[in-house]
Amino acid sequence: MTTATATATAVAIAAAAPNRPSRSVFLGVDVGTGSARAGLFDKGGKLLGSASSPIQIWKEGDCVEQSSTDIWLAICTAVKRALALADVAGEEVIGLGFAATCSLVAVDSEGQPVSVSLSGDTRRNVIVWMDHRAVKQAEKINSLNSPVLQYCGGSISPEMQPPKLLWVKENLQESWSMTWRWMDLSDWLSYRATGDDTRSMCTTVCKWTYLGHAHMQHIDEKSSRDMEMEACGWDDDFWEEIGLPDLVEGHHSKIGRSVAFPGHALGCGLTPDAAKELGLVSGIPVGTSLIDAHAGGVGVMESVPESEPKEYDDDGICRRMVLVCGTSTCHMAVSKTKLFIPGVWGPFWSAMVPEYWLTEGGQSATGALLDYIVDNHVASSHLANRAASQNISLFQMLNDLLAQLMRDTGAPFIAALTSDLHVLPDFHGNRSPIADPNAKGMICGLNLDTSERQLALQYFATVQGLAYGTRHIIEHCNNHGHKIDTLLASGGLSKNLLFIQEHADIVGCRIILPRESESVLLGAAIVGAVAAKKYSSLRGAMKALNAAGQVIYPSEDPKVKKYHDAKYRIFRQLYEQQLNYRSIMAEALC
Fold this sequence. Notes:
By secondary structure, the chain is of the alpha+beta class. The chain is globular. One of its GO terms (molecular function) is D-ribulokinase activity.
């Protein structure tokens, strides 16, 4: 178990002048894997200040768990700290939105936590998104070939909610009987803040097999945006077929009776109790929430240079893919028509941008994999101490080492340093486009060198392996109807310029970075702005509050392209070799 400290980390971006007139400020809250963050934005989409507070996490084998009580306390700490650091009064916040990982929360009829842990610890009522306990349940569900699976890329992932729900029913019968509401974490946050358990089109469509397009066939477009609506997109046959017919009971009361677009104003706004805990004013509008990656998409997808031709805007959004790169990476693109892409989640109707179909690829471990590679190397602790003494990050130290190594060896370009080192980054399975949760990571080219430089090379080869994975996803999507030619990157890894440049060189696309690096927080704040009726639609708010920053272009050196094309062929062959090895060993054990 990792215990969170009580200390919150924070960054104040700007301090307000004394005796200023009252401002209109939007608050976005994001709960990631390791921390809760709060960000305050002005009406121009500029970050006024942000703060974070760590959250507890328990990891035992394939089981990864958290506490909703601990998460809420961390949110309260982060919000109050952000208000203080940005010198924003609670009365100035006029809209609030939440984003969170797609983790699964269990609560009873009183809203109290219900354990989802084999330990029986009642604090541990959240199955974290990365939890892979339900691999067998996912395989069972996929074997039934339900029609809803065509909207999940052809198969359901153990990271989605139905397999996890089935696991709880099969393994924790008492908890299953006690649970009154099963909720995506971001939906639970908005419920905790407002008392309204309307679910988000984003969470239900992407993680629960809710059919957004079926929903729209039953409900008038205007009412779907302005009212809470009866959930018409559940496929009852699916839940009964997989062995969870009790979730259909009570008009789906345990998984969502009503579903709304992100930004729909919930209930009567922030409840007095939640307002007191957060340091805000009761009654401020709270919008239907977003998954954290999708909030990153909302916060960045309209971040195009002002020089972009206006006529490009009509289909431009359909030529972009958003990379939200953090612990994992989500690859999100939208289209006006539904595109069925094997091994890639979706198409999801209105799950991120209303009235567009969402395609969602992903890598289950990116930042987590880089941490694993670095932290488990013998030279890591010494290098970390050196980085701390120079007041730079460990990854910046590694990037500097690689630049020095290129100079020392006379390499023609930095990528050439890894010509003998190849990484298949599927250390936590392959989410897409292969959709193999049993895939394993592979490293080819190790030796007995334990130096800091060798650590830098292993880190760099892993960065490249992740970028080859992104190239594989984009090629696969474009082969099935997309026309992606521009990437927009957000999340913690987007601040690593070596990571971004390698992606540009390997994929062959320009990468636009947003003006505001905290795009997930901005996406959550946009939900609050829409709920406050400051914008008539989510897309309108995105256009008003998104802004482009730096643009990274791929190398024009043909030698760089030739080099990466060669390494990409090796990358693709590594998985084929793994399948061969798996078959050989299965036959030997038969």
